[in-house]
Amino acid sequence: MATPFDFATSQSPPGDQPAGTLRNRRVGVLYLADRNYHSITEIAIASLLFHNALPISVHFFQVGYSQAVAAPISSFAEQNGHRIEIHKLSNQDLRFGDVQRRGAHTYVSEAALLKGSAIDALAADYDYLIYIDGDVVCFRELGLAHIGAFEQIMAAVPDFSVAAGYEKSTEAANSYFNSGVLLINCAVWRATSAFELYVERVVQHADHCDFMEDCGAHDQCALNMVADGDWARLPLTWNAQKIVSHTRLWRDAVLRHYTGPKKFLPITNWACDDREYKLLTRLEDQFGLPIKSRRPYDFGLAYWLNSLRRHGHVVRMQATIDRLEREALA
Prior knowledge:
The chain folds into 2 domains: 27-236, Spore Coat Polysaccharide Biosynthesis Protein SpsA, Chain A, CATH 3.90.550.10; 237-329, no CATH class. The protein contains 11 helices and 10 strands. It has helices spanning 38-51, 71-79, 115-122, 160-163, 186-191, 194-207, 218-227, 248-252, 274-287, 301-309, 311-329, and strands at 27-34, 57-63, 83-89, 128-132, 136-138, 154-158, 177-185, 232-233, 240-241, 255-257.
């Protein structure tokens, strides 16, 4: 288990952070998308830069295409000391043979399999890497000054669907994380030849999943296999997956992860709370991005009614969240 932590940079005042944090470490942020996910990944990047004053180095890996981010996002990044670097990856960079998709998660992009390749491409340049899925929106400052260094290969947040018992999982899934937000310890990644192990585990997983009976999450399971149960825990607010919507965690999340086939766009009143609508509106105004729906917003009425419909599920998820928070403190 890891203690709560944040990324202090070299710009932090001396003595500001306790010993053992990531102060003065090289930290980069990594996104990965194919052409179909370019637009929502742009919005995800914009939300991160918008909420974080400390300079951030963003690496945007694009699979099978090459496209600059919108000019207003690039200009904002430059004016505020951030950096956005575009990297191109090809599906030919996959080293897993003919891995066939199977199971329930067929909406997940094949580009996700290149997550390990993108991490490995940057691991020599940084002490820590933050990997963030393109369907993860940042709602407030990451608070990097409170994140402590850790010895494991990565830090993550549990997969709430598995933790709540919604998946037909095995005992091996008792320590199973969601790979939408990862903090990679680059020194350990390199020292353990983690990328080579990841490649092996993707191929192995194509034949059999140790965690779920009906599974299509190739990259997520492969990364869990690489960690082998020994991973540090990020604050739950760093990866509030959509299954926890209507809970306190979703309300207060730093990073909301819009898992599943339906993302945060187009805006739908039954799934969009006031906090989400206000942020998307601010991002549209700041960056000129085509975000808002032409349908009038009802100021959260449909979202509230939907919470009543989902009451039993919300109670179950809140109990799961409470249990995970107790375990993190144990």
